[in-house]
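Hey Z.,

So I finally got round to the 2'-deoxycytidine-5'-monophosphate thing we talked about over coffee. Here's the setup:
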Amino acid sequence: MSHVVPVLAIDGPSGSGKGTVSRAVARRLGWNFLDSGAIYRALGLAVERDGLSLDDQDAVARLAGRMDLRFSSGEPPSVWLDQIDVTDRIPTESCGAMASAVAALKPVRQALLQKQRDFRQLPGLVADGRDMGTVVFPDAEFKVFLTASAAVRAQRRHKQLKEKGVDVTLARLTKDIEERDERDRTRAEAPLRIADGALVIDSSDLGIDEVIARCLAVVGVL
Ligand code: DC
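And the result:
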């Protein structure tokens, strides 16, 4: 019975700090964690690996259904796609762009719905994504929409990627982020939008600890 398991849905655009914040909140609460973006990213890699065309939506959806995806609970967690460690390929911008493209396909989103809901296990789940509070867990007790100005988001992402050794210019990144956000916001299927009842947090001028504290307060933990 999934509804007895509490969910904190954290949605928002890329670079809003969602990933870092939701991981930290899950750790603090001792809850499970769903990185739904990593699922779309892994599918993007699998589509590329198999040379599928995105025009063949049903083939992509079938691949989504059969791909074997595992997350290790390590720190940082590693991601395994069909027994191959793809951890280093997941965070790249090209992988993000592929994820955004496969994520726009309706049959793909349907094929991945149950996989995501399976993460709803006791004692609770922190779910990070674009449609956690609107589509995947509309009955989530706790909902946050985390955002930040486009300039701040691009700068954060730039810093994050540089730390990971990924070489990309700020200008290029800003353009990529704007394009990806536009596609995520305007797609017909589960577009990025604020869920009813979600607390909107603009993290542009907030430190990470403050954002984490506000999310914990939503769940009633101070
Ligand atoms: O959160 P992220 O940057 O890892 O997500 C990568 C892409 O996947 C993002 O551009 C849109 C898509 N995505 C989605 O459509 N729905 C989700 N719940 C999570 C990600």
